[in-house]
Amino acid sequence: MSDHFKTCPFCATIWPSREAFLKDRDIQLVGYQVDFDELALGLFLFNHDTCKTTLAIRALLLKDLYTGPVFTQRQTGGESCPGHCLRTSELAACPAECECAWVRDLLQIIRKWPKSADLPPSKTVN
Questions:
Q1: What is the predicted pLDDT for the residue at 126?
Q2: Alpha carbon distance, N-terminus to C-terminus of the chain
Q3: What residue spans of 78-122 are helical by DSSP H?
Q4: DSSP reduced 3-state for 1
Q5: Under a CB-based contact definition with an 8 Å cutoff, are residues 21 and 47 in contact?
């Protein structure tokens, strides 16, 4: 088990916790790559502005931030589906009562996560 939440594979910046990662003003949510077989294995995609690298975080590691309803039926491709999950860079919420809706709502939680101006820059490995 790792003693920190995430390490940037390019510049070796270390985020000691999930909160430190989400609050980092140099981290920007840019997309979600769905895994229709196992939604919790989908990938939230973040750009690390410091080194211009895209980082992936499994939905499983952020799922507990969402406390709303989880639907059991998938609506993908149906009449009520706007197709958001099919477009990686689409960050909008989904109005459908779909199995995938919790991920779309979680995107909104992450997008609204307060960025901290007073946090020191993330640590890098020397």
A1: 47
A2: 21
A3: 101-111
A4: coil
A5: no
Contact of 101 with 82, CB cutoff 8 Å: no
In the numeric block, the tokens 């910046």 are attached to: 13
- Provide the token pair at 93: 């919420």
The answer on pLDDT for 118 being more than 80 is no
Q: Could you please report the per-residue DSSP string of 34-75?
A: --SS-GGG-EEEEEETTTTEEEEEEGGGTGGG--S---SS--
DSSP state of 86: G
Q: pLDDT for 83-114, tens place per residue?
A: 999 999 999 999 999 999 999 999 999 999 99
> Using CA atoms, how far apart are residues 4 and 81, in angstroms rounded to an integer?
37
Which three-class secondary structure state does DSSP give residue 11? coil
Give 28-75 pLDDT, tens digit per residue: 999 999 999 999 999 999 999 999 999 999 999 999 999 999 999 999
Q: Which of 3, 55, 31 has the alpha carbon at shortest distance from 111? A: 31
Q: Do 15 and 55 contact (CB within 8 A), yes or no? A: no
